[in-house]
Amino acid sequence: MISTPLDPNAKVPCPYEPVCSGCQLLDKTYGAQKDLKTQELSELLKNHDIRYNGVIDFLSAGASHLRDRLDFSLIDGRLGLYGKHNKEIVDLDVCAQMSPELQSWLTEFRKIKWPISKGSIRLRVSPSGQRGVWLDFANVDIKALLDEKEILQKLQQEAFIEIGQRRKVPFWNGQEFKLKDPELNIWFNTWMGETPVDLYCHVASFTQPSIKANVLIAEQISAWVNSYPGARLIEFGSGIGNLTLPALATAHSVLACEIDALSLEGLEKTVSVLPPSLKHHAQKLKIYRGDFQKKILQDFSEFDGVLANPPRSGLMNFLNPLEALQESERPKFFIYMSCFPESMMIDMARLQSFGYEIQELAILDQFPQTNHYEVLGLLQRK
Asked: How far is CA 142 from the centre of its chain?
């Protein structure tokens, strides 16, 4: 466990505190934020009649400057986040949420004058320092940008570019810009034991927001899976493999289930190029593509444990097959991770009704200065 590396009585200064809606807790010390989030999670457990007599751990990689990706809105030349008191964009030139590398990228990016009235922009920095940008604009604006040429030519000298919901990549054919299919690159990493593993994905892919904080996630998942030697795992919401690979390092096998095809392409690429010392783990992984929230075809009695990191809506119908099993047939343990505690509590209450009890519970504070936080829980069958 890594303790909070900041004076709990200190506050993080921000020149935009009076107007920006991005951070809600800047007026509180970091110690007060910790107490607030811990108390909120305790109340959620109580309100859903979920039994837990243990301590809620609080994991932190720092009180500021953690994010290696951030989404901005662009409206009429203003690039930033929405204001607290109106619908206008607060034009941000600095942000205490961003890592130094991302802040440097934002500073350079802001030099561009966009001929776009409205759009969304994601900036990202990879573990190696590569810069990426995802331009999510309307089709008419994308065409205008391709025809204008100069902005994309200058931007390509600074970063890797993805455009639109389909994550197309612009390329210059000598006369004009065209768009080609999405391209996998290393934009994030996880850990298998003591070894870092590069994760292939897209600038637009879902990842955790902070490379630094993700180390704590990988450590916690590894520790929990390692406490059940030789476990056969089924994972729901595997995405690009951020939790899959830490689990795979010590599990007997992992069946990774995911609905998003592009994410699974990234996971498959990552596994195909694992370092030589980790190659033997690849044969323990199987991948299933499908909408696990609506229908799951696997027999839960074939698995020793479940690993879940669902979207905000929670697990939904995924838990239905558990209900049909005898208690002794259900997987021995359940690891649940979520950044939306409300839906997580609904699922945890249902798991409790199936005979599971919370063994450990932790808050991972990868969204400091905001109301948001990640929750990791280990449940075990009675």
From this structure: 27
